[in-house]
Specification:
The protein is an alpha+beta fold. The chain is built from 11 helices and 19 strands. The chain is 37% helix and 28% strand. A 6-stranded mixed beta sheet has the order 3-2-1-9-10-19, sandwiched between helices. It has a 5-stranded mixed beta sheet with strand order 13-12-11-17-18, with helices on both faces. The chain is flat and about 65 Å long. The mean pLDDT is 93. The structure holds adenosine-5'-triphosphate and magnesium ion. The site of adenosine-5'-triphosphate has 22 residues, from helix 5 and helix 6.
Length: 341
Amino acid sequence: MLGTDIAIDLGTDSVKIYLDGKGIVLSEPAMIAYDEQADKVLAIGKEAYLMLGKTSERISVIRPLTNGVISNFDMAQYIISSYLKKIGGNKVFMPRVVVSVPCAITEVEKRAVVDSISSSGVRKICLIEEPIAAAMGAGLDISTPHGSMVIDVGGGTTDIAVISLSGIAISQSVKIAGNAMDEAIIKYVRRNYNLIIGEKMAEETKIAIGCVYPRKEILTYRVKGRNALNGLPQAVDISCDEVLEALIEPAMEIVRVAQEVLEKTPPELMSDIFSDGIVMTGGSAALYGLGALLAKKTKMKVSIPEEPQNCVVLGAGKAIQYIDDMENKNYGVLNPLSAAY
Ligand SMILES: Nc1ncnc2c1ncn2[C@@H]1O[C@H](COP(=O)(O)OP(=O)(O)OP(=O)(O)O)[C@@H](O)[C@H]1O
Ligand SMILES: [Mg+2]
């Protein structure tokens, strides 16, 4: 195990770890269940997700990452060290780590990411900006003087970037992605049916029948919750067209920001993007019709790689090979890694 390198994608929604030579070895919700009275962690990852919305008052289930940055340091550190122990087993495991970070992150936020990982006994930490990792994970060759546009629609944020020569030419980030879509479904159901539903129910509905472009056939899904007026349990069947109505606003906001980035893109890079199209990654890229909507509004081709939710961690994994260059202070313009600690 000693000498192994790993890549980590610390997402708002999930933590993914890639082991060099093995592939993705861990993918768990970025959640932790905590007993406030006993000051004790009860569960992390999938087990914590199962408790979401079903806890008593003394237990809270929290996401230690908000919009891709650490909002609860101790909890984030706890999750990371538990997962590193899990993949390392009982062996001595002092990996070098590539970790992806949003490109709109401050120095303080970067430091928090580095500190949360370094306390788990790692030899070296290198950062890679998320859109760069997403592009590499999607299989794009980003080292040439050729523009590529990547839109990563995750849980907390949508990151949009134009990349050339292994660097970001222009980028923008908005806090509208999968979680905002779940919120939009919660609001819609409340407004139209006086029905209060939880985050998990909303996400299930989105994944089952969600769309932002009309589906060919009408699908329905039974949402269950509590009636806001009489407090009694209630279930209603809602159709994919209704979910479309709820989701179109956040989806159009994402499209609008993409258009803004395109407007600011230098003409030479723009012509490359026009011929290759836009690549969309992140878990929410799997939402039915998001690619079609973006293609229609921008008049560009949009492609979605297989397993879009894994592109960032796979790309960070591919970037492991550049750690040696960073260590030799051989930074070079074409190194996709942005900093070493
Ligand atoms: N089939 C699907 N249809 C729609 N949304 C989906 C689907 N599968 C996953 N998602 C959504 O993808 C999001 C998670 O994506 P991803 O794993 O890329 O996020 P993340 O990297 O943890 O978050 P971020 O990049 O914002 O920090 C969740 O909101 C989830 O509901
Ligand atoms: Mg992500």
